[in-house]
Amino acid sequence: MLLEKIYYLVRISFGTLFIYASLDKLAFPQQFIEIVSNYQILPEFASKIVGFILPLGELILGTLLLVGLYIEVASGGLVVLTIFFTIALIFKAISGNLSDCGCFSLTSNSETNIISLIIRDIFLVLIGSSIFIYSKKNKNLS
What we know:
This protein has one domain. The longest helix is centred in the first third of the chain and has 26 residues, at 2-27. The chain is globular, with a radius of gyration of 16 Å. Helix 1 (2-27) packs antiparallel against helix 3 (44-67), helix 1 (2-27) packs across helix 5 and helix 4 runs antiparallel to helix 5 (114-137). Helices cover 77% and strands 0% of the residues. The chain has helices at 2-27, 29-38, 44-67, 71-95, 114-137.
């Protein structure tokens, strides 16, 4: 019973986190596209596509987790996204580019500790994976 309550709290918090992460990106898509371009991983046309689609994915997957629909798909999708985010941050750290990551807010111009962001993303992968595994084992939960 306690584990079930913890699961609900974690699932709802994880979904809410990604909904929150999408809001600034959706409100200011051009700024987010510039941030994606600054990673210098993707060609310019791909940066534009990712810049428009990524926030929608975060919003949709986060909402699905929040309302308890398609939990495995939503948590699995967010885990995959977070793995890509982590890889992008690693590339950013290797290149020495310390500009803002664009993770949760586009308005911050402060230099970011990339190592702490990578550790945060690994932690998020573990949380999302836990939601995925728990929901797979307990199909009756939503």
